[in-house]
UniProtKB/TrEMBL annotation, chain A:
It comes from Saccharomyces arboricola (strain H-6 / AS 2.3317 / CBS 10644) (Yeast). One of its GO terms (molecular function) is mRNA m(6)A methyltransferase activity. Its EC number is 2.1.1.348. This is mRNA m(6)A methyltransferase. The lineage of its organism: Eukaryota, Fungi, Dikarya, Ascomycota, Saccharomycotina. Signal peptide: none annotated.
From TrEMBL, chain B:
This is Kar4p. InterPro entries: METTL14-like, MT-A70-like. Its main location: nucleus. The keyword Nucleus applies. One of its GO terms (molecular function) is mRNA binding. It comes from Saccharomyces arboricola (strain H-6 / AS 2.3317 / CBS 10644).
Length: 590, 334
């Protein structure tokens, strides 16, 4: 009995069988045949004994075919060595097709032309032979590529898919890291945005707005809407809605204001503006849910179930409070700060624009001794326009490799990307670039927890999204030393050191940094001969620091810090004022 | 001074509070029936990166204007429709030129030298790994292939663009082709045919979810005076995969950006890569597509030149579009 499926296999995969890498090797051809799913019974490739038997059967089937159509399959002449040849060197597709048509009449429409040219045609696919409908089907299959097709194609295609899936497989460290991040990262309140526009228009008719502020809702109208549109009230209770703030001057046909909630002419602008509406019940529920989730997460942190890439004292260590130094970064001695795992820099690149803040020129930025800040670690560098190239160049000069590029997709109040106005020179700009540089080969990095996109609302000019801090903390761990250069007051946060000329005063908790900083000031003072009341301020900051470390030892530092803060506000503030004034005098006098 | 001891999320909410303050705040509880719907005072923003870490959807899926980018802006909607209509009207037959990667440079050289073919818009590359862009850029006399003014778009993954930076930043190159924008294409999820995957770089720190394009201008165009050649600020430098995106090597967004920007009708796309059977290279009206895997092989220089002679080398000015499109000075944006 002839195995017609094997005949079909040989016809369809004529080219693959004879060409490299298979090159007609009988055992490999057998593997391709098995993996191709031509026969349902042969599934197990791995189990030795069984597959050997099946290979015997495969060989018998081949012999049957040769018996039926002599010379249709030709082997390498090597019969002296083994009784079974190892290599197929020729397949006569034409006669195989005749054979196949015996079982499935008219499956292949055979032309009377010479068989040699026909063989060429049928090399990869039976396209010319199998008639129009099948050709069309195959073309459509190519266009509508999906999972169904993936499991049906030729053995070659199936193998390629398997290979691709194998390559796509991620290291378990990525998976474990992601899972750990899921169970140990604090949840930030999340409320989805409603995507049903009709809800916004229903709400706009039932809402009472005074002074650009939602005051109350008419319950009767809402329940009327609920009757016509079931699910409306549930949606209100679970999602954010943006309600048009229609005013006498509003002309709805003009569409939405480009500036929306940041519009300066709210009382005259004729475009549509919106108000965010979240019922307080929803907000409270979000608060509550998040708090309970975070409680669980806090307890998760205490059980170190997967420790790779974590610091050894991860669960018991408390994060350092925010620290900052006001200084001119261009003239600051980075050696004072020590080494960091993560650095964020948002330089004011000079890109020929009139910005409400001073910009540094390229040479100054390139000249910054950033190579001193890390032996190994990650740097995030915000770049824009022309500075993309400059930034990449600088990173290379500082010893980093540009390993990722993050895009910040800027959204507006309504969660839309920014498409209006003229926000770029040639095209409008809906995103900003963040270069990620890597130095050395740190083992403590938790890779592939986040993706290289940030979707976040724009805020004040040049203010960058806070999402980055979370991403950096997940990459390097919460206890890693982290530095932000060119930071402002809103950038200071626990666990981070911020330097820049726009932060207010100084606050240093790490004693060695404090000492080096004082030395730096002292040296500068000596060289500049500007004697200020140094001893006074020094003793005061010493006092603050002492108190902080005492608090740490007492292990209830959270409350103490607050005390210390209030203390500082009363007594310490003057001294910090003095201190940064001194620093300013020093840096800006040069 | 902000409160420094508050945790990350607290600082966020305190900040946002200041956005949304009003003197006549409703402090008293409203009627019991209304209580649960009383508007909250806090302005809420979501942290989609945090949300993703907790096992939820990808950040880009929360952009609310993916399917209709100009949602809420009727004037821009009209502009996009008018432009699409006109571009379609002034498009050549879709042409494909199916040749092996090794024959791309000789073929194009032949077009330049013997057929006197030049193009105003040239796009190189598609959304696959393993592209042979470098040899194309170094071996091809691109300045002869692209007329002046002309526009060059190079699409690849960001790593590849990085590698090309050195070449594209050298003095000779940079003089001819001024780098003008960096475009980004974002697939919507990990099942997308445009999801870059892990290919070749498991050393990256974050998972890749984007493709980059290096857009260059050669020759001089001014955005204020050359409205017959370019329409600036129509599209943005970011495209997100839409539901109607058909699978393939090149999502239509890539073509659309080039078409909306330049009014030229002579457009060439070179794909120096095998894209494989699962990512077909489709043809597109108005474009000549050179690729080893393009679905049509119907290009003939003679026929192309005839078609261009009939169409004209630029799409003519149209009043409707001129009134709608964002213009340079004086006029206020919106």
């Amino acid at each position: 009995m002839i195995n017609d499926k094997l005949v079909l296999f040989l016809i369809q995969n004529y080219d693959d069988v004879l060409r490299a890498p298979l090159s007609g090797q009988l055992k490999d051809v057998y593997s391709l045949y098995v993996s191709g799913g031509y026969e349902d019974c042969i599934k197990d490739l791995g189990s030795g004994q069984e597959s050997l038997l099946q290979f015997e059967k495969f060989w018998d089937d081949l012999k049957d075919i040769i018996f039926a159509t002599p010379k249709s399959i030709q082997f390498e002449q090597n019969l002296l060595v083994a009784e079974r040849p190892e290599k197929i060197i020729f397949l006569d597709v034409f006669s195989l097709k005749i054979l196949y048509n015996k079982f499935h009449p008219f499956y292949y429409a055979l032309k009377s032309s010479s068989s040699s040219s026909d063989m060429k045609m049928s090399s990869v696919t039976p396209k010319t032979d199998s008639g129009e409908p099948q050709l069309l089907g195959r073309l459509l299959n190519v266009l509508n590529w999906d999972d169904n097709v993936k499991n049906q194609g030729l053995p070659r295609e199936q193998l390629s898919n398997r290979l691709q899936n194998l390559l796509r497989e991620k290291p378990s460290s990525f998976q474990l890291g992601r899972e750990r991040a899921k169970y140990t990262t604090k949840v930030i309140e999340y409320i989805p945005i409603c995507s049903d526009y009709s809800h916004a228009s229903f709400l706009s008719t039932s809402v009472y707005i005074v002074n650009n502020k939602i005051v109350s809702l008419q319950w009767s109208k809402i329940s009327a809407c609920q009757e016509n549109h079931p699910g409306f009230i549930e949606c209100i209770q679970s999602k954010i809605h943006f309600i048009p703030n229609i005013k006498p001057q509003t002309d709805i046909s003009l569409g939405d204001c480009s500036y929306l909630d940041t519009c300066h002419k709210l009382n005259t602008c004729r475009y549509v503006h919106y108000l965010q509406y979240i019922p307080s019940c929803l907000q409270e529920r979000a608060h509550h849910d998040t708090a309970s989730q975070n409680k669980e997460i806090e307890s998760n942190v205490l059980t170190p179930f997967y420790t790779l890439g974590n610091c050894s004292a991860h669960s018991i260590k408390k994060a350092l409070p925010a620290q900052w130094i006001r200084c001119d970064v261009r003239k600051f001695d980075f050696k004072i700060l020590g080494k960091f795992s993560v650095v964020i820099a948002d330089p004011a690149w000079n890109i020929h624009m009139n910005l409400p803040y001073g910009t540094c020129n390229d040479i100054e930025l390139l000249g910054l001794p950033l190579h001193e800040l890390q032996d190994e670690g990650i740097i995030f560098l915000w770049v824009t326009g022309r500075a993309i190239e400059l930034g990449k160049e600088s990173l290379n000069n500082w010893g980093y490799k540009v390993i990722n590029e993050v895009s910040w997709i800027k959204t507006n109040q309504l969660g839309r990307t920014i498409v209006t106005g003229r926000t770029g020179h040639w095209l409008n700009h809906s995103k900003e670039h963040l270069l990620v540089g890597l130095k050395g080969d740190p083992k403590w990095i938790n890779k592939h927890i986040d993706i290289d996109l940030i979707v976040s609302m724009t805020r004040e000019t040049s203010r960058k999204p806070d999402e980055l801090y979370g991403i950096a903390e997940r990459l390097a761990g919460t206890h890693a030393r982290k530095l932000e250069i060119f930071g402002r007051d809103h950038n200071t946060r626990p666990g981070w050191f911020t330097i820049g000329n726009q932060v207010t005063g100084n606050r240093i908790y790490e004693m060695d940094v404090e000492r080096k900083c004082q030395e730096f000031i002292k040296n500068k003072n000596n060289s500049h001969n500007t004697g200020t009341k140094k001893s006074d301020k020094k003793s005061n900051s010493k006092f603050q620091q002492q108190q902080y470390w005492n608090n740490i030892n007492n292990s209830n530092y959270r409350t103490e810090i607050k005390q210390k803060n209030s203390n500082k506000n009363q007594t310490g503030f003057e001294s910090t004022q003095q201190q940064f004034q001194t620093l300013n005098n020093l840096y800006f006098a040069q | 001074m902000p409160s420094h001891d508050s945790s990350f999320d607290q600082t966020r909410s305190t900040h946002s509070n200041s956005h949304f303050q009003s003197p006549n705040q409703v402090t008293t509880e409203m009627k019991s029936k209304h209580v649960s719907f009383k508007p909250s005072r806090d302005f809420h923003t979501n942290d989609y990166s945090n949300n993703y870490v907790h096992g939820n959807s990808l950040p880009q899926q929360h952009v609310t204007n993916i399917e209709n980018r100009v949602d809420g802006y009727p004037k821009l909607q009209k502009l996009f429709q008018a432009k699409a209509k006109q571009i379609n009207q002034f498009a050549t037959t879709p042409f494909g030129c199916k040749i092996g990667i090794d024959s791309i440079v000789p073929t194009l050289n032949h077009w330049i030298q013997n057929e006197n073919l030049t193009f105003d818009v040239v796009m190189i590359g598609c959304l696959t790994e393993n592209q042979f862009i470098y040899p194309i850029l170094t071996q091809l006399p691109l300045d002869k292939l692209i007329s002046k003014p002309g526009f060059l778009f190079i699409w690849a993954n960001s790593q590849k663009i990085n590698e090309l930076t050195k070449l594209l930043n050298n003095e000779i190159w940079a003089k001819k082709f001024r780098r003008s924008e960096e475009l980004v294409f974002v697939p919507i999820d990990k099942k997308s045919p445009f999801y870059p995957g892990l290919d070749q770089d498991d050393e990256t720190l974050m998972e890749k979810m984007q493709w980059h394009c290096w857009m260059c201008i050669t020759g001089t165009v001014r955005r204020s005076t050359d409205g017959h050649l370019i329409h600036c600020n129509v599209d943005t430098d970011l495209s997100i995969e839409t539901k109607d995106t058909t699978n393939g090597a090149v999502p239509s967004h890539l073509y659309r950006i080039a078409e909306n920007f330049s009014t030229a009708t002579r457009r060439l796309h070179i794909i120096p890569a095998r894209t494989g059977y699962e990512t077909p290279v489709r043809v597109r009206p108005g474009w000549v597509i050179v690729s080893p895997d393009v679905m049509l092989d119907n290009f003939s220089p003679k026929r192309y030149k005839e078609e261009i002679a009939n169409l004209g080398s630029n799409i003519p000015l149209k009043n409707e579009i001129e009134l709608l499109r964002p213009r340079s000075p004086v006029q206020k944006a919106q």
